[in-house]
């Protein structure tokens, strides 16, 4: 078996996670292609094209200054511009590599964003490779770009981008999936499922003598089904990324809604009241997003509240029978404490921290329950 076989296999397989990255970043109506316009490409409705070439290595940076991978890629793009396959002004020429390294020519051109900067980068490249001999493997590609078609190469370089990934390319996909608010424990499972789906879809199309293309609509349908299944496996804590603001907390302390007066009634400290407001707001943020995103429905939410009410009634009775020596306020504090640390599920899932305590405060705000033994009289 060839010593290069593992590297060649990695280079081919890398195109599938890269295609997933294009689809995850894509816009409605776009089409992602494999082995049609280069390794991976995206064609948008507005006429813009992303033409990507993927370079991989199992050892080191695959696009060093004198690497064939770098200069053959540049040369192919120059030829595509000359033949009209790509409109240089409407194309982003993306070179993806799975390993980084010392900064060189690729980084120099990627940093150039104006015609003047590109011209300067070309001069630096000529100086750096001034001793390049015609027998060198990159000579024909270098000559095509820098010596014979400098103007066409300059157009490519002006829209050239370099992206550095890691290993087999799946880390990049996982980063894109994280942005979709997928539970951390489900990310690798979701990415593996999507990779299997796109691999089979593209290979079956190629086997049927069709182009290896995937529309955004096809991907969106598939992603939604995997996405919803993954999110239902674990209730996401949206309050982590969108926590209550200080302003929200102090507004509640100022307005003193019913649930705040409920905890005041049992002589909770200022810190405990602030904690109650924070729990209430966090639970509210999550509850609204879960229902909005259809992670739970009204029936599941109602069942969860009923289980909490049942525990409150049972605990209230037990405390009143076994702690008669305590004051009404002390029994109320004990009841609140017992309810706040209650472990309960929503559907089949355990909710994030503060959900149960926050929901109890929401029920106290309704008011469906209270902490003081005379709360129904004192809280009107």
Describe the structure.
The protein is built from 17 helices and 6 strands. By secondary structure, it is an alpha/beta fold. The chain has 2 domains: 5-232, no CATH class; 238-378, no CATH class. Helix 3 (68-83) links the parallel strand 3 and strand 4. The protein is elongated, with a radius of gyration of 30 Å.
Structural domain tally: 2
Number of strands: 6
> Which structural class is indicated by helix and strand composition?
alpha/beta
Order of H and E elements: HHEEEHEHHHHEHHEHHHHHHHH
Mean pLDDT: 91
Can you summarize this structure?
Helices cover 57% and strands 8% of the residues. The radius of gyration is 30 Å and the shape is elongated.
SSE topology:
Blueprint: H1 5-13, H2 15-25, E1 31-34, E2 40-43, E3 49-55, H3 68-83, E4 91-97, H4 105-111, H5 115-128, H6 139-148, H7 150-158, E5 160-164, H8 170-178, H9 187-207, E6 212-215, H10 216-232, H11 246-255, H12 258-265, H13 270-292, H14 298-322, H15 328-340, H16 355-365, H17 375-378
Parallel strand pairs: 3-4, 4-5
Antiparallel strand pairs: 1-2, 1-6, 2-3
Helix pairs in contact: 2-8, 2-9, 3-6, 4-5, 5-7, 9-10, 11-13, 12-13, 12-16, 13-16, 14-15
């Amino acid at each position: 078996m060839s010593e290069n076989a593992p590297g060649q296999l990695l280079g081919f397989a890398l195109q599938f996670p890269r295609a997933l990255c294009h689809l995850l970043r894509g816009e409605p109506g776009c089409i992602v292609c494999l082995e049609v316009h280069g390794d991976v490409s995206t064609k948008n409705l507005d006429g813009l094209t992303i033409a990507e070439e993927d370079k991989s290595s199992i050892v080191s940076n695959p696009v060093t200054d004198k690497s064939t991978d770098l200069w053959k890629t540049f040369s192919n793009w120059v030829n595509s511009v000359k033949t009209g396959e790509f409109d240089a002004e409407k194309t982003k020429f993306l070179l993806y590599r799975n390993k980084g390294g010392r900064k060189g020519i690729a980084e120099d051109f990627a940093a150039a964003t104006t015609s003047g900067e590109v011209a300067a980068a070309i001069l630096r490249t000529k100086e750096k490779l001034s001793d390049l001999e015609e027998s060198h493997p990159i000579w024909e590609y270098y000559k095509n770009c820098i010596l014979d078609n400098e103007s066409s190469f300059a157009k490519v370089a002006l829209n050239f981008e370099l992206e550095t990934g890691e290993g087999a390319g799946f880390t990049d996909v996982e980063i894109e999936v994280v942005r979709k608010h997928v539970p951390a424990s489900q990310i690798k499972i979701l990415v593996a499922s999507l990779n299997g789906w796109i691999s089979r879809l593209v290979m079956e199309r190629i086997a049927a003598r069709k182009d290896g293309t995937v529309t955004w609509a096809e991907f969106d349908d598939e992603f939604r089904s995997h996405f919803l299944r993954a999110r239902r496996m674990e209730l996401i804590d949206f309050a982590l990324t969108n926590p209550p603001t200080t302003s929200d907390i102090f507004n509640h302390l100022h307005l003193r809604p019913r649930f705040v007066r409920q905890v005041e009634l049992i002589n909770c400290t200022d810190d405990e009241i602030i904690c109650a407001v924070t729990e209430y707001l966090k639970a509210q943020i999550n509850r609204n997003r879960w229902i909005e995103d259809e992670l739970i429905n009204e029936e599941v939410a109602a069942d969860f509240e009923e289980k909490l009410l049942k525990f409150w009634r049972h605990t209230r009775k037990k405390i009143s029978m076994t702690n008669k020596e305590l004051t009404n306020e002390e029994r109320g504090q004990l009841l609140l404490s017992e309810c706040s640390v209650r472990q309960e599920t929503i559907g089949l899932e355990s909710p994030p921290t503060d959900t149960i305590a926050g929901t109890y405060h929401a029920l106290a705000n309704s008011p469906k329950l209270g902490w003081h033994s005379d709360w129904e009289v004192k809280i009107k």
